[in-house]
């Protein structure tokens, strides 16, 4: 029983009026129609189901997803030089490989349906989640275009001394179907790469202090990484969706590159962090615009 506004406004994604559910409040918590930014405090599965019923042909030009890493069953990591137990909150509880794969298939299948016919999706993750994601993409008939390795030049040291130091994350780039004619801005990527073809290993430092000035997210991505992804696979004005918006790094990168952003996030603390960061990015873009005039 979803309610919609009486008439569609003339911006890309009209404000959805959703009913709250057992799992989430399902409401728009931040919007800027002029810049094109809409953030929902919502369960991405319920949100996507609503969009599928409303836009059967698909709505988004590109999706970036950084799904929960199922790491919360007591590993150790390094934070501020100290050993800390990994328990990244309830959203990360591991339910065993089969349930993890079922969850990945559930959200990926919905992402596939809300992509436009030529749209693409990028999914990042560590070895805990990325192999399930790749298999689910194959099962769903997506076309895997590349797998990118994000290399972190200064990773936290491995404290157990029982493994190599984890210094990369994988990012799989796929088109909606085998028939999709995906957007790839080859010349732009070559230009960024000093006139040479860009390869699939990308080196970016983890987010710095400035990117965490409003607070931290446990799996925050660098803005520069998202900007490259967006510049590679979309055009100005395109509509981009992030189902696990976190601290809305995707939204920041979208604002910086003049695209439009829709995000969903379930955790209240990350919603507040996102709103602060999005407002800041919008104010920087607006002040640079005034300066240019």
Strand content: 15-25%
Q: Averaged pLDDT, please?
A: 87
Counted beta strands: 11
Range of helix content: 25-40%
Q: What can you see in these coordinates?
A:
There is one protein chain. The chain has 293 residues and is an alpha/beta fold. The protein has 7 helices and 11 strands. The strands form 2 sheets. Strands 1-2-11-10-3-6-8-7-9 form a 9-stranded mixed β-sheet, sandwiched between helices. A hairpin with a 4-residue loop joins strand 1 and strand 2. Helix 1 packs parallel to helix 2, helix 5 packs across helix 6 and helix 6 runs parallel beside helix 7.
How would you summarize this macromolecular structure in one to three sentences?
The protein is α/β, with parallel strands linked by helices and 293 residues long.
Give keywords.
293 residues, alpha/beta, 7 helices, disordered N terminus
Topology summary:
Blueprint: E1 27-32, E2 37-41, H1 44-54, E3 60-65, E4 76-79, E5 82-85, H2 96-114, E6 115-125, H3 130-139, E7 143-151, E8 168-175, H4 186-192, E9 201-203, H5 223-233, E10 239-242, H6 249-256, E11 260-265, H7 268-292
Parallel strand pairs: 2-11, 3-6, 3-10, 7-9, 10-11
Antiparallel strand pairs: 1-2, 4-5, 6-8, 7-8
């Amino acid at each position: 029983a979803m309610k919609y506004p009486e008439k569609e406004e003339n911006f890309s994604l009209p404000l959805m009026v959703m009913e709250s559910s057992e799992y989430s409040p399902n409401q728009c918590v931040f919007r800027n129609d002029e810049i094109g930014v809409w953030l929902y405090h919502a369960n991405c599965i319920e949100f996507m189901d609503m969009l599928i019923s409303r836009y059967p042909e698909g709505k988004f030009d590109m999706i970036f997803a950084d799904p929960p890493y199922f790491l919360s069953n007591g590993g150790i990591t390094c934070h501020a030089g100290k050993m800390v137990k990994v328990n990244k909150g309830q959203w990360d509880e591991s339910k065993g490989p089969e349930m993890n794969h079922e969850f990945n298939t559930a959200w990926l299948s919905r992402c596939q349906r809300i992509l436009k016919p030529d749209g693409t999706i990028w999914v990042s993750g560590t070895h805990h989640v990325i192999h399930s994601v790749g298999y689910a993409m194959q099962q769903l008939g997506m076309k895997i275009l590349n797998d990118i390795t994000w290399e972190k030049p200064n990773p936290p040291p491995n404290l157990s001394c029982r493994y190599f130091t984890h210094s990369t994350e994988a990012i799989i780039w796929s088109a909606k179907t085998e028939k999709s004619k995906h957007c790839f801005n080859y010349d732009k990527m070559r230009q960024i790469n000093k006139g040479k073809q860009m390869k699939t290993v990308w080196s970016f430092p983890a987010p710095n202090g400035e990117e965490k000035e409003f607070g931290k997210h446990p799996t925050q991505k660098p803005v520069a990484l998202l900007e490259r992804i967006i510049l590679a696979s979309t055009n100005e004005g395109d509509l981009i969706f992030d189902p696990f918006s976190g601290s809305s790094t995707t939204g920041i990168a979208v604002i910086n590159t003049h695209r439009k952003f829709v995000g969903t996030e379930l955790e209240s603390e990350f919603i507040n962090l996102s709103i602060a960061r999005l407002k800041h990015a919008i104010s920087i873009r607006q002040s640079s615009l005034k300066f240019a005039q």
